[in-house]
Design goal:
By secondary structure, the protein is an alpha+beta fold. It starts with a helix and ends with a helix.
């Protein structure tokens, strides 16, 4: 691996671990504070807001104009966004919320198998869930897999060590377990205590790919769920996993 690639990887991992955390409900307050919102120039009392799926940007509809604010509230950009995935200029708040609400996994040609996910079910509708070994909201979501039809859904559970040193340590144990099947069941069941014999000289390639993929897709909170149609949920869906996956 070249120096440039090493540096890029380290930078992405550092950025991801710094920003990711666990939660439930609305996605709009995951990467900025009310104080930052109040700092935005506006005449209206409460502008509409949307967290863009990339770390550190929030789209705001301020007096019918599109503004993009950095997560610390310091900088506000005016104009438009260009979505390289949709290959389209996003000129207003409605277009941002429409196109940025979709993560087009098929168009991105993401090879999920390269991330060594824990897989639940074998159905045609593909779902991704980013989780963490010590994330209680994630465990609550994964328990709801029991409500799904395994012949309808294939759920790829991507475990990340995102919530601190204990999470990173446990995630490493699960990733390097010699019994891959039992480790994957532990990820899906939220088992944080069972010990596993470790593979000697464990290859970290897929672990690095997981973290880079999470960064690229804008995973700023766990659980982070991507539906088969590209719609995503930041945090535990308020309506429940099954209802979220079946909603239009």
């Amino acid at each position: 691996m070249s120096f440039q690639k090493c540096f890029l990887t380290i930078s992405l991992l550092a950025g991801f671990v710094t920003h990711a955390f666990a939660g439930t409900g609305s996605s709009t307050d995951t990467v900025f504070t009310e104080n930052a919102l109040k700092a935005a120039p506006k005449n209206s009392i409460q502008p509409k807001r949307f967290v863009v799926p990339t770390n550190g940007l929030i789209a705001l509809d301020i007096d019918d104009n599109l503004n993009v604010m950095t997560s610390n509230g310091r900088f506000v950009l005016k104009g438009y966004l260009y979505d390289t995935w949709a290959k389209k200029s996003l000129n207003n708040f409605e277009e941002v919320t429409k196109y940025a609400s979709i993560i087009p996994l098929k168009e991105l040609n993401l090879k999920v198998a390269d991330l060594q996910p824990a897989v639940w079910g074998n159905g045609p509708e593909q779902v991704m869930i980013f989780t963490d070994p010590n994330c209680t909201y994630c465990h609550a979501v994964l328990k709801e897999l029991a409500d799904l039809d395994p012949k309808k859904y294939s759920v790829n559970v991507i475990s990340l060590g995102a919530l601190g040193e204990e999470s990173k340590k446990r995630n490493q144990e699960l990733y390097c377990a010699s019994d891959r099947y039992r480790a994957d069941r532990a990820i899906i069941s939220g088992d944080s205590t069972t010990k596993f014999e470790q593979v000697k000289d464990c290859d970290q390639t897929s672990m690095i790919r997981r973290n880079i993929t999470a960064q690229v897709l804008g995973v700023s909170m766990v659980p982070f769920i991507i539906r088969h149609d590209g719609n995503y949920s930041i945090g535990k869906p308020a309506q429940g996993l099954k209802a979220y996956l079946e909603s239009k």
